[in-house]
Q: What sequence folds into this?
């Protein structure tokens, strides 16, 4: 197999992988890792080788739109005025390719992808390239967030046949949808060391005409190989591997890659990877009295603190950017993704549970404040993302980070007031610049600003503790805190006058499910009903706008329409495994936070539908897509890596474990064991690739606690016991409210609840394990002792 690639100028292409340390067979990049242009091929090739996004001033008269103008996806709409004969993914394009015997050019990306924007501006807006694409290929555009199945199948090919993968992902297919050449970002023209997109198109066109049969044979061979390599099955195994062994190996692999100074698990770029932090917290809990347990806790807490102090966190508007381009968490890739906010809110809430340090709870609240303000539809749903790019001023070309960076001059003008009581002349602007590391020359290095667009600009990053900053100027710590917060608020108000980054107003069921968890868990841990209410509103949105009552199926997508309405594509895009898995998790978290059994009831129904649509009765585990929806695709995959988001199978395994605890239904425990067994070989080979699944394996082989609170949901004593449970980090548990009604949903699921009595008519707690319950307790302090055992 030959490869045609461009040597890596740093930071090209939003890239695939998962920021895993040494030991991951897919390398150490992550979902959006910047990388060079590359092409991989399954046959002999010659050597070498928009929606509402802010637009730059037009260089040509407005063109006639192509057929993407009729789509709902913000990403596809960004390409609606390209001089390319684009098709959406569908039968019309496939029929055309077969009828005209042309290869399919498949281009996959998403609307907030910086290098997708670059390739669109450089190549897809180019008249000559557009002509070449339209004449010699059938061109298909796919929003990876709408069709993760298409993305996963062809990303598997690109990763298997090249040094990596990412977005934009560009793959050439036979008319039967089998890949034969793939790559990521391409510059438009040849450079000294890089092959341009124009040249690649000419070479593939010529090869299709001259060596088509060879390409077809090689494509079939590669597809057959990928089918064999991607198979995940129980085989002749009866049980999953040892949790103790997998736990230990996963921890050791993480420990080897840990950055002692700055936290995280790679040199650069660095990614948040909440799945790893979740594993470390869980590992700590089961190894508290060992050095490794203390080490795991320290690794997770230090990483979270360094991230929160770094520029990857937006100190002005809150929320986290996608990743850091440096080891120090200083200069981010500025895109903000919903799934990061959702998972990090949970991680910081858990850090607060474990440490008691309000630093972490403040960060969690800040994340959700950002989501409520910037990423929430008025009906309760959550938008996908905000772009990294925006115009520095009106009618200027978008630049990455323009909305988020500051010059010293701007700070001085916004914060000129003198600070009373300082040991030297000091303005509030100078105080803020000292604390957050702003300089006249700017704090963004040339290696992180290859185009020179951010010279003299600064990213806020905490350089000193409040205590050190206060001591430096002879000020009281609380006075410094107040001054800095007031300064950040003034910066926030000033930033409202800047052109905003593009908002991807698409709403995905999966990411909305994660966000329901984010609000529910944080609200429960911090005892903030307003956050639990946001989770409830999110769940109501999902049921109202993304659930088909007749079929019991989830829809994958909906969109914000004019006037705050909600729109759907026609026909609807149905849900994938991750949609069901993440929504079910969100509903289980919401039930525990609100004790509203209707959310648990819906979770059970969705799990039944998930089992019907995705379960592999032969090999175990869940396929990522429905059989019918993926008809024609060369592979039907089971996602086997926890990365920027946990895999659908990892989350499903934990959901099944919890559902068994909530209902006692043996079928779900059997499915959980079968799923873990199917992924045995993957966990044995690279446990660090599946930290969320290893965590579930450990929970399965321990004993799940059923914590039952007998009482009136609205009563103060009931709430006190519930809050006691939420204040503690107990990942391997289900929290159940027994209201004494034998006809209630929970009583019908778990008949033993009717045998549990309140003591002296007070709210009473029981902790049940292995079908045996503890003695009843009525005081939160007694319950805390019981749960610590």
A:
């Amino acid at each position: 197999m030959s490869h045609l690639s461009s040597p890596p100028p740093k930071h090209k292409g939003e890239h695939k992988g998962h920021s895993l340390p040494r030991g991951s067979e897919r390398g150490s990049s992550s979902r959006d890792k910047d990388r060079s242009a590359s092409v991989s091929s399954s046959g002999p090739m010659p050597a070498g080788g928009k929606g509402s996004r802010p637009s730059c001033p037009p260089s040509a008269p407005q063109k006639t739109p192509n057929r993407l103008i009729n789509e709902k996806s913000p990403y596809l709409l960004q390409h609606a005025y390209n001089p390319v004969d684009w098709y959406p993914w569908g039968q019309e394009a496939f029929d055309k390719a077969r009828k005209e015997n042309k290869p399919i050019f498949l281009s996959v990306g998403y609307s907030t992808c910086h290098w997708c924007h670059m390739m669109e501006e450089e190549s897809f807006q180019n008249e000559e390239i557009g002509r070449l694409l339209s004449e010699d290929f059938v061109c298909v555009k796919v929003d990876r967030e709408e069709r993760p199945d298409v993305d996963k199948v062809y990303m598997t090919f690109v990763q298997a046949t090249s040094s990596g993968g990412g977005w934009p992902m560009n793959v050439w297919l036979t008319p039967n949808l089998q890949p034969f050449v793939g790559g990521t970002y391409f510059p438009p023209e040849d450079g000294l060391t890089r092959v341009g997109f124009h040249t690649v198109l000419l070479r593939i066109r010529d090869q299709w005409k001259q060596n088509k049969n060879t390409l077809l044979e090689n494509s079939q061979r590669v597809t057959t190989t990928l089918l064999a390599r991607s198979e995940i099955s129980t085989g002749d195994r009866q049980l999953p591997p040892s949790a103790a062994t997998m736990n230990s190996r996963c921890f050791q692999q993480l420990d080897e890659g840990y950055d002692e100074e700055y936290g995280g698990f790679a040199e650069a770029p660095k990614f948040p990877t909440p799945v790893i932090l979740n594993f470390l917290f869980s590992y700590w809990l089961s190894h508290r009295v060992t050095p490794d347990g203390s080490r795991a806790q320290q690794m997770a807490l230090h990483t979270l603190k360094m991230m929160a102090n770094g520029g990857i966190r937006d100190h002005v508007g809150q929320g986290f950017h996608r990743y850091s381009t440096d080891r120090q968490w200083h200069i981010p890739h500025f895109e903000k993704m919903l799934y990061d906010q959702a998972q990090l809110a949970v991680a910081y809430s858990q850090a607060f549970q474990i440490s008691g340090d309000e630093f972490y709870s403040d960060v969690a609240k800040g994340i959700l404040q950002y989501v409520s303000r910037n990423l929430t539809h008025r009906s309760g749903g959550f938008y996908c993302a905000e772009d990294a790019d925006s115009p520095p001023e009106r009618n200027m070309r978008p630049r990455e980070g323009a909305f988020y960076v500051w010059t010293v001059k701007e700070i001085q003008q916004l914060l000129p007031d003198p600070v009373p009581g300082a040991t030297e002349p000091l303005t509030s602007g100078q105080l803020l610049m000292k604390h957050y590391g702003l300089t006249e020359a700017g704090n963004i290095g040339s290696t992180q600003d290859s185009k020179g667009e951010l010279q003299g600009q600064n990213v806020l990053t905490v350089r000193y503790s409040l205590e050190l900053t206060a001591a430096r100027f002879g000020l009281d710590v609380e006075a410094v805190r107040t001054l800095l917060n007031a300064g950040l608020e003034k910066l926030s108000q000033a930033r409202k006058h800047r052109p905003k980054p593009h908002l991807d107003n698409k709403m995905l069921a999966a990411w909305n499910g994660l966000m329901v968890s984010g609000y529910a868990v944080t609200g429960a841990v911090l005892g903030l009903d307003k956050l639990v209410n946001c989770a409830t509103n999110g769940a109501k949105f999902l049921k109202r706008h993304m659930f088909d009552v007749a079929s019991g199926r989830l829809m994958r997508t909906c969109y914000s329409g004019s006037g705050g309405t909600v729109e759907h594509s026609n026909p609807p895009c149905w849900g994938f495994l991750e949609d069901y898995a993440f929504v079910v998790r969100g509903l289980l978290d919401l039930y525990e936070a609100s004790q509203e059994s209707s959310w648990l009831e819906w979770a059970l129904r969705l799990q039944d539908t998930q089992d019907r649509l995705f379960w592999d009765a032969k090999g175990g585990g869940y396929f990522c897509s429905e059989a019918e929806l993926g008809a024609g695709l060369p592979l039907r995959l089971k996602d086997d890596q926890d990365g920027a988001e946990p895999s659908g199978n990892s989350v499903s395994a934990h959901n099944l474990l919890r559902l068994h605890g909530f209902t006692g239904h043996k079928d779900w425990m059997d499915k959980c064991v079968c799923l873990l067994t199917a992924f045995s070989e993957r966990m044995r080979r690279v446990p660090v690739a599946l930290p969320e699944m290893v965590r579930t394996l450990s929970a399965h082989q321990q004993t799940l606690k059923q914590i039952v609170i007998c009482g009136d949901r609205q009563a103060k004593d009931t709430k006190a016991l519930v809050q006691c449970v939420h204040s503690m980090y107990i990942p391997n548990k289900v929290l159940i409210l027994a209201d004494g009604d034998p006809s209630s949903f929970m009583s019908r699921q778990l008949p033993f609840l009717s045998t549990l009595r309140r003591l002296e008519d007070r709210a009473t707690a029981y902790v049940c394990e292995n079908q045996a319950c503890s003695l009843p307790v009525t005081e939160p302090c007694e319950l805390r002792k019981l749960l610590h055992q």
